[in-house]
# Entry
Amino acid sequence: MTRLCLILGDQLSLNMSSLQALDKGKDIVLMAEVKEEATYVKHHKKKIAFIFSAMRHFAVALKEAGYQLQYTQYDDPNNHDSLYAHVEHAVKEHKITQVVVAQAGEYRLHENMSSWADKLNVELEITEDNRFLAPLSFFSDWAEGRKQLRMEFFYREMRRAHRVLMEGKEPTGGKWNYDSQNREKAPKDLNIPKPTSFAPDNITKEVIALVEDTFADHFGDIGNFHYAVTREQAQQVLAEFIEHRLENFGQYQDAMVEGEPWMYHSHVSFYINTGSLSAQECVDAAEQAYISGQAPLNSVEGFIRQIIGWREYIRGFYWHLMPDYKQKNHLHAKRDLPDLYWGGKTKMNCLQQCVKETKENAYAHHIQRLMVLGNFALLAGLDPEQVNEWYLIVYADAYEWVELPNVSGMILFTDGGMLASKPYAASGAYINKMSNYCQNCAYSVKEKVGHQACPFNYLYWDFLIRHKGILQKNPRMAMIYRTLEKMDAKRVEHIEQDAKLFFENLANNEEV
Ligand code: FAD
Ligand code: DLZ
Ligand code: SF4
# Structure
């Protein structure tokens, strides 16, 4: 009996569970660059180039490891356009009776696969997605019976279960979370290291030419492609992060500096999400840096929390709540996504910079995604479906399992508080506190109303006024609503007028 193992474009690891039981001499591994995956949303050009190049490099690694691989490139005249069609042809050609695949990261594809066994008349084995440290059962066991699914408590369970930064039963240093030492604004003279970069090799150059030709109408710049496309290169990105950036990671985690898209972040999301790096090795490397005195606890704990806390939690949360989660819209948001998200002109410097960097790099760091792009989407009441699609398109690390909970739960509050205890809404003061964007802005962050005022200022209050009926009941919002209640009626009227005019201009495609 010959088995067929399907490896998806984000399962690029020789340790993938689906590969483990194969007989290398007999069984066949299948990989395909297909239209269905490349266009179910119109992914950023750099995202497609990154994934195709990483897939082609992984194909080389599979062959070197002795696997029999059937790989179809996008421009192959025999390309069948969908993963199902490729599997169907391979099943017929090789008289396959058993197909094995690790669980797809996205619900859409997982659902699609559930009909394959019947349609193909084969046995379909779906193995656990071991790109994650926690099996899905770990999350559902933890979630069972809980009214609230807060990341912080899940994270502590993960620390205990995986013995990370633990001294016996106690967290290293006595505290679970060192965020109180983080979140500083970046000083002017900071010498931020350049990101680890790789010149495109022939495989990548070929892919770039393909993308320029075939996906010319997709958003994003393809120039200056410098990402890691092999496991070895991804390991180098991690190693250089540990050596040059981790020390300052915690301190400047929430800082934004104009013209500095990379800051002290790790830039490992592309690689960890495609399987080129494992979560375990990222955690081990950071913990080791603490033990050897190379990096302080606030940075190391902060980084480890992102990986074994946020990343694992978000993934468990997604599978726990899909498919219903996607339909949620607690705040009834329905405004169309404005053109400024696609690079249309705006006078709001923070938004303009974050979109520009997203277009250039298919990357923006967390606080840009959250507090600038996300905050605006929340305050402006943008339609969750359109916002989710935008985030899925523009970031090279975006797959629905990670994008959807972050966008719907963390920024848009579509679930009414399942993921976040209150909306992450902020006025211009927060952006000004954490960045230098306001210095080069046409608006004044100090002004609260009027045509010169920073739009985040009046949109923030207008958001609270609009959603008073829903949000005032939230105990974490009580204080801010008390402030609103004390606000002068004339000021409230002014805020509402400014917001109304802003939204009219937005709808008329005028530069805001
Ligand atoms: P670092 O800041 O160095 O963090 C280290 C790692 O921690 C990341 O590589 C990532 O694997 C993990 N991580 C950190 N925060 C989160 C989080 N909230 N959820 C899941 N993992 C996390 N991350 C994605 O991987 N794909 C997405 O599509 C994505 N969409 C997002 C959308 C919004 C609105 C927000 C607010 C966050 C989103 N994130 C997403 C989380 C986070 O912004 C990115 O993981 C991070 O910016 C990637 O850059 P980095 O590797 O330099 O991260
Ligand atoms: C994102 C992506 C793209 C752009 N192209 C492919 C592809 O051609 N072939 C493939 O196997 N996978 C691709 N992927 C990744 C898949 O979309 C991803 O595996 C699913 O979304 C499940 O997580
Ligand atoms: Fe953004 Fe307002 Fe600052 Fe301008 S003034 S950069 S719009 S926060």
Remarks:
- The longest helix spans residues 297-321.
- Residues 3-127 form a domain with the Rossmann fold fold (CATH 3.40.50.620).
